[in-house]
Amino acid sequence: MIDVHAIQAFKDNYIWLIEFGQRQAIVVDPGDPVPVTKQLRERGLELCAIVVTHAHWDHVDGITTLRQLFPVPVYGPAKEAVTGLTHPLNEGQRIALGELSLQVMEVPGHTKGHIAYHGAGVVFTGDTLFGAGCGRIFDGTAEQLYTSLQRIARLPDETLNYCAHEYTESNLRFALAVEPNNPHIAERLEQTQAVRQRGGATIPAPLWLEKQTNPFLRCHHPDVIAAASRYCKRALDNELDVFTALRSWKDKF
To answer: Which residues are catalytic?
Structure first.
């Protein structure tokens, strides 16, 4: 049994604190060490490991300070330069700490070496799959990101997606522009706005909800194809072209 706690950082980042076993914990994507140490102290947890999805500063800048306080292993993508990395990971490897086991999935696109971790009914996707959206393309490609999202979508529908940013409301506004007649998007947007007005988090969300409301997972749907084609002013006849058009559209939305 695991408990996952959200640690808010910067403007809209989430650092995830995974509690398991006898007051043990893993921290995921610690861009800021200060709120992490505060949460560990307040919850009486022992940090056992640091886990990283990719090398962007807002996911890794807390590693050096945390390791000065807690000399723990640092797991992260073998294909990216992560300061302090002690255990480089590739596709299919596992992190096994006591009863907790997380499997590595390579999900390039946002960055070329991005990885995700899944197990125990959860997936930590970093900046790959957001609530109702997906990450921008930096040094990866649209084809890589599309393929990575499809891989995540094939996990069990009840899997909870723990991404690293609170972007759900703005993403749903874009989703509604793509599919204005999708009632699931309208309902999720209303619920999201209510949660955010209370200062709550919209993450995690189950993958089945993402499949209903996230345009980047709906590139096969006729309404999404039609909207992307209108944006491009030409007919699109394959899902990768639809995805690429949506990502370009969202970048300017």
So the answer is: 54, 56, 58-59, 110, 127, 165
Closest alpha carbon to 110 in 89, 75, 80, 154: 80
When pLDDT is averaged across residues 195-223 and rounded to a whole number, the result is 98
Q: What is the per-residue pLDDT for 68? A: 97
Residue 52 structural domain = 2-252
Q: What's the CA gap between 122 and 118, in Å, rounded?
A: 6
Amino acid at 47: L
- The number of domains in the chain is 1
CB 144 within 8 A of CB 109: yes
What pLDDT was estimated at residue 2?
A: 86
**Single-letter code of the amino acid located at 214:** N
Our measurement of the distance from residue 141's CA atom to the centroid of its chain's CA atoms, rounded to an integer in Å, reads 17
**CA 60 – CA 151 distance, rounded (Å):** 25
The CATH number of the domain where 194 resides is what? 3.60.15.10
